């Protein structure tokens, strides 16, 4: 099923330029989006709580900073660029009570809306504008007159503005129309994004490189070689995959590597597919969201334990040594 795709020529930048935008949060995404919007001649203010360490940074970069509830009352479009697990707490106290019919609230990820952490009043528009990359890349690509792919979705229509036109215009102001803006739904974006993170990009990749490293170490191979073969060279392959696709990757590796990959895929593929199906089901039925929100309510005990333990692993200890020349160059 092909998603509708929009480019700069299809989108009216004037829609978002005619509105007052308020961004809640000034982390990597908040900063990048605010700067891109401002450079696209969009009126932007920042909303932060008193005492936030980001206040001075935002002011230094020339933005007017308001308390969140004040920002909400003075904006046409409010973007909630906070960590997913904070949406319910912040929006219920500082945003929803001050929303007026016709305003639009936007998200960069569908988690809080799709999993019913946020319930919006009728007449208030709810949009998704999701850059497909981190804040640093969003800003860097914009400055190079390029952009990242963006996803947009409409969960609820505004009684005053055309929510889709606003979402498209916002994405164009961030550089999305230079690459392409794809229209999807909150559900599809949220579930596919979580699945990609867990099964492939973060969880899956980390599991494979760590298990590969540990397998070689246990078999008596030097840690340095295990790190090079299972961790260091991932970037080389990932770059080929990113720019040239699976077929292009195949064309740039040796026959030995290609044949070995095909042979290894057969036994590994069936096991991975079954495990991935279980991961997707837990995302779809809401059990992952429930577990994650419980983790947050307990002040992240598992995350804290895992982060501490990771520093003591051989893969991190040898990796820190081998990465030193790269970090020194930076």
TrEMBL record:
Which InterPro entries does the record match to this protein?
6-PGluconate_DH-like_C_sf, KARI, KARI_C, KARI_N, KARI_prok, NAD(P)-bd_dom_sf
The residues responsible for catalysis, as annotated, are 109
Q: Which UniProt keywords apply?
A: Amino-acid biosynthesis, Branched-chain amino acid biosynthesis, Isomerase, Magnesium, Metal-binding, NADP, Oxidoreductase
Its UniProt entry gives the catalysed reaction(s) as: (2R,3R)-2,3-dihydroxy-3-methylpentanoate + NADP(+) = (S)-2-ethyl-2-hydroxy-3-oxobutanoate + NADPH + H(+); (2R)-2,3-dihydroxy-3-methylbutanoate + NADP(+) = (2S)-2-acetolactate + NADPH + H(+)
Its cellular-component GO annotations read: cytosol
- All copies of the KARI N-terminal Rossmann domain together span 3-184
Amino acids binding Mg(2+) 1: 193, 197
- A single Pfam family it belongs to is KARI_N
What are the binding positions for substrate in this chain? 254
Q: Which GO terms describe its biological process?
A: isoleucine biosynthetic process; L-valine biosynthetic process
KARI C-terminal knotted domain mapped to chain residues: 185-329
Cofactor(s) this protein requires: Mg(2+)
Q: Could you tell me one molecular function GO term of this UniProt entry? A: ketol-acid reductoisomerase activity
> Which positions in this protein are listed as binding Mg(2+) 2?
193, 229, 233
Query: How, per the record, is the cofactor bound?
Result: Binds 2 magnesium ions per subunit.
Q: Which SUPFAM superfamilies match?
A: 6-phosphogluconate dehydrogenase C-terminal domain-like, NAD(P)-binding Rossmann-fold domains
The answer to whether UniProt assigns keyword Metal-binding to this entry is yes
Q: What class of enzyme is it?
A: oxidoreductase
Q: What does the entry list as the binding residues for NADP(+)?
A: 26-29, 52, 54, 135
Describe the family membership recorded for this protein in Swiss-Prot or TrEMBL: Belongs to the ketol-acid reductoisomerase family.
Q: Which HAMAP family match?
A: IlvC
State its role: Involved in the biosynthesis of branched-chain amino acids (BCAA). Catalyzes an alkyl-migration followed by a ketol-acid reduction of (S)-2-acetolactate (S2AL) to yield (R)-2,3-dihydroxy-isovalerate. In the isomerase reaction, S2AL is rearranged via a Mg-dependent methyl migration to produce 3-hydroxy-3-methyl-2-ketobutyrate (HMKB). In the reductase reaction, this 2-ketoacid undergoes a metal-dependent reduction by NADPH to yield (R)-2,3-dihydroxy-isovalerate.
Protein name stated in the entry: Ketol-acid reductoisomerase (NADP(+))
Per the UniProt entry, what species is this protein from, by scientific name?
A: Helicobacter pylori Hp A-26
Name the encoding gene, please.
ilvC
């Amino acid at each position: 099923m092909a998603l509708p795709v929009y480019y700069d020529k299809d989108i009216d930048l004037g829609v978002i330029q005619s509105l007052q935008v308020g961004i809640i949060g000034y982390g990597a995404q908040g900063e990048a989006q605010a700067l891109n919007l401002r450079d696209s001649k969009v009126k932007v203010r920042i909303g932060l709580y008193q005492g936030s360490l980001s206040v001075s940074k935002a002011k230094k970069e020339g933005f007017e900073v308001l308390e969140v509830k004040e920002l909400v009352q003075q904006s046409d479009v409010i973007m909630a660029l906070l960590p997913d697990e904070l949406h319910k707490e912040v929006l219920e106290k500082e945003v929803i009570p001050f929303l007026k019919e016709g305003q639009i609230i936007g998200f960069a990820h569908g988690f809080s809306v799709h999993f019913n952490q946020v319930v919006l009043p009728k007449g208030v528009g709810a949009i998704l504008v999701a850059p497909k990359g981190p804040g640093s890349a969003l800003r860097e690509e914009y400055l190079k007159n390029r952009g990242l792919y963006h996803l947009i979705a409409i969960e609820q229509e505004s009684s005053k503005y055309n929510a889709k036109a606003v979402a498209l215009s916002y994405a164009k102001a961030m550089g999305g129309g230079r690459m392409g803006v794809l229209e999807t739904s909150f559900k599809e974006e949220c579930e596919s994004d979580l699945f990609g993170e867990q099964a492939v990009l973060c969880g899956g990749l980390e599991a494979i490189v760590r298990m590969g490293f540990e397998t070689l170490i246990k078999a008596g191979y030097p840690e340095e070689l295990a790190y090079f073969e299972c961790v260091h060279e991932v970037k080389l392959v990932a770059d080929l995959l990113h720019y040239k696709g699976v077929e292009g990757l195949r064309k740039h590796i040796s026959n030995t590597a290609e044949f070995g990959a095909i042979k290894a895929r057969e036994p590994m593929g069936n096991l991975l597919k079954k495990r991935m199906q279980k991961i997707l089901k837990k995302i779809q039925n809401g059990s992952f969201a429930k577990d994650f929100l419980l983790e947050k309510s307990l002040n992240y005990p598992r995350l804290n334990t895992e982060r501490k333990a990771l520093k003591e692993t051989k893969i991190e200890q040898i990796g820190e040594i081998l990465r030193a020349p790269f970090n020194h160059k930076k």
